[in-house]
């Protein structure tokens, strides 16, 4: 049954829905300079509901050829989703996952090219003692449910808690692996350079410090002063953008530079303290509570959980080109992950994952789902 965009998030599951988003609303964020390579006004069209009936989906990783891997936070399972039909196939269960609160099996990443592309899966998850990153051989020729090799832990010791576990991982254009972590409910972790909590980390695919390009060559810490980093992606000029949960006042979009301090817990949002790097944009938590982030068509696209909307921040270089726009408000509920869909023409599309079955949503028939979006 088709699901028109004008309908609510409670529309029935099944075939692909399509429709154009009405005129978007502005944000309460600060004004931004005008003029941009990206259009000041954008558009979003839901061209397909790829699949439905997902349980607590969190991480999403495109595979060579167009299929997707999606993690289930609360079950520890990884599913493969056919990029055309939406058929679900269980890849396997990651051993050692201890779900609880905001923890569990979270971010996924696959090497973008080379001999390991599509043959190795990286995962960020909460164990009994910490948050950690593992890699597993992925053999899709084996029987469904038994396609993952034994996990090889490449980084451990990231603080865990019921809250603020971070969890996003991604390979950068430099082929290094980046991870966004949370402060585990203890703001002191974010300012402690010896702690892996409240940081963005940069490492080799083997989990070693990336060396050149890191503030300290023998440390994986890339930036600090973060409360709970949830989204990571790069623009065409290889600048790193990150979304971050605020506490009660401001959620943030940050442009990440190595060795910079982003202020938490001493600053939330923009401040007058010159020790800290200010966010590029900020939102009230009711409007955002951001999770995943992707860069496509000259804009940052940021998924909102509590805000139940998709934010577009058009860019002009390293600055916003116009005030942010909100799309899909309340149409599909909580939005967890957004990933550029380079299979639809130079990154003009997005994959969007909803999050109504995470214990904080209001799950209805068909939740959770993966949507394919065309954006401008």
TrEMBL record:
InterPro entries: 6-blade_b-propeller_TolB-like (IPR011042), Glc/Sorbosone_DH (IPR012938), Quinoprot_gluc/sorb_DH_b-prop (IPR011041). It comes from the Bacteria. Coiled coil: none annotated. Residues 54-360 form the Glucose/Sorbosone dehydrogenase domain. Residues 24-42 have a biased composition (Low complexity). Residues 9-42 are annotated as: Disordered. This is PQQ-dependent sugar dehydrogenase.
């Amino acid at each position: 049954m088709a699901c028109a965009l004008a309908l609510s998030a409670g529309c029935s599951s099944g075939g692909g829905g399509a429709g154009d988003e009405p005129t978007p609303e502005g944000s309460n964020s600060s004004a931004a300079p005008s003029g941009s390579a990206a259009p000041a006004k954008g558009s979003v069209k839901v061209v397909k509901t790829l699949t439905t009936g997902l349980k607590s989906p969190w991480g999403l990783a495109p595979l060579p050829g167009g299929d997707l891997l999606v993690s289930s936070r609360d079950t520890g399972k990884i599913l493969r989703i056919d990029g055309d039909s939406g058929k679900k196939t269980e890849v396997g269960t990651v051993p050692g996952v201890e779900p609880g609160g905001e923890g569990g099996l979270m971010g996924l990443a696959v090497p973008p090219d080379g001999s390991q592309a599509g043959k190795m899966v990286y995962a960020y998850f909460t164990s009994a003692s910490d948050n950690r990153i593992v890699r597993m051989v992925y053999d899709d020729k084996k029987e469904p449910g038994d396609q993952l090799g034994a996990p090889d832990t490449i980084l451990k010791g990231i603080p865990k808690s019921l809250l603020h576990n971070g969890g996003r991982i991604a390979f950068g254009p430099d082929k290094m692996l980046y991870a966004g972590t949370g402060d585990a409910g203890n703001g002191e972790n974010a300012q402690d350079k010896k702690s892996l909590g409240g940081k963005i980390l940069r490492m080799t695919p083997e989990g070693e410090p990336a060396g050149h390009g890191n503030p300290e060559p023998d440390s994986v810490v890339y930036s600090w002063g973060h409360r709970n980093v949830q989204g990571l992606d790069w623009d065409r000029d290889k600048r790193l953008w990150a979304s971050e949960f605020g506490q009660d006042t401001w959620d943030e979009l940050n442009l990440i530079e190595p060795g910079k301090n982003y202020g938490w817990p001493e600053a939330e949002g923009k401040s007058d303290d010159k020790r800290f790097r200010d966010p590029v944009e900020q939102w009230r938590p009711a409007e955002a509570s951001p999770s995943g982030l992707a860069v496509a068509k000259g804009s940052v696209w940021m998924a909102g959980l509590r805000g139940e909307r998709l934010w577009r921040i058009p860019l002009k270089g390293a600055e916003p080109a116009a005030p942010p726009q909100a799309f899909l408000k309340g149409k599909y509920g909580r939005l967890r992950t957004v990933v550029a869909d380079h299979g639809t023409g130079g990154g003009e599309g997005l994959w969007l994952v909803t999050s109504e079955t995470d214990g904080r949503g209001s799950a209805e028939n068909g939740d959770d789902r993966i949507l394919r979006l065309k954006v401008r």
